[in-house]
Amino acid sequence: MRLKLAAGNWKMNGTGGDLHVLTELAQRHTHPACELLICPPATLLHRAAQAVEGAEIAVGGQDCHPQGNGAYTGDISAQMLIDAGASAVILGHSERRQYHAEADETVCAKALAAQAAGLTVIVCVGESLAQREAAETLQVIAGQIAGSVPDLASGNALVIAYEPIWAIGTGLVPDTGQIAEVHDFMRTRLQDRFGAEIGGQIRLLYGGSVKATNAEEIFAVPNVDGALVGGASLTAADFSPIVRALESST
Ligand SMILES: O=C(CO)COP(=O)(O)O
Q1: Top mutation candidate among 160, 206, 228 for ligand 1, by most atoms within 8 Å of CB
Q2: Which cellular component, as a GO term, is one annotated location (predicted)?
Q3: Quick check: is 190 in a domain?
Q4: Which residue segment(s) compose the domain that 40 sits in?
Q5: Is 4 annotated as a binding-site member?
Q6: Which of 31, 91, 127, 248 is the most exposed place for a label (fewest CB within 10 A)?
């Protein structure tokens, strides 16, 4: 059984005054029937980890460097994320691929480092609108999974988030048939590569304009094991109903 995961990606949002969102979430979800993860900006990680201490909420980073330490100004290593209290990291988000020119090989190197450090890795994949319109979606996803996901000894510490670029922050969401097609395809690719057991352990999240209003429908899709939520993870009032929808889908 894969434990469902509700993950929030705060992106470049949030300062100390927003930590109350975490304490509010902790109060609302004392015994969650799914895993809860919030990935705040790196500047807030340590305080976020302290804010959720004792609660069933984990915190994670939004990126890490492949090296453990060294002359990489502005970068943060996987060990540093752990030191700050993180247990997971998002890698290869389309915004990093686009604005930081991260290729699959870079994402894979980061994933290896994060795994070695003991972090749960959330690798993001997803097609652009032009790629979808050219009927290249599955080909793009296959290439990103092959290139960004490192070899694994277990599937428990790997999560893949399918985030169509055209659905991120736009209010547009693929229909459930389109989500099912990609998630089933990812499951098959992962089981072909890693075997039925490991490939069956890897959790597959959907991300892109997930809201309280569409969560239930999305979580009913087979092979959707949770969500990676951007905008609607910034307040407890928005995120909490998504968590509840996931809990009742389990
Ligand atoms: O990019 C996302 C999460 O990583 C999705 O963002 P939105 O939920 O704001 O569309």
Answers
A1: 228
A2: cytosol
A3: no
A4: 5-170+195-249
A5: no
A6: 31
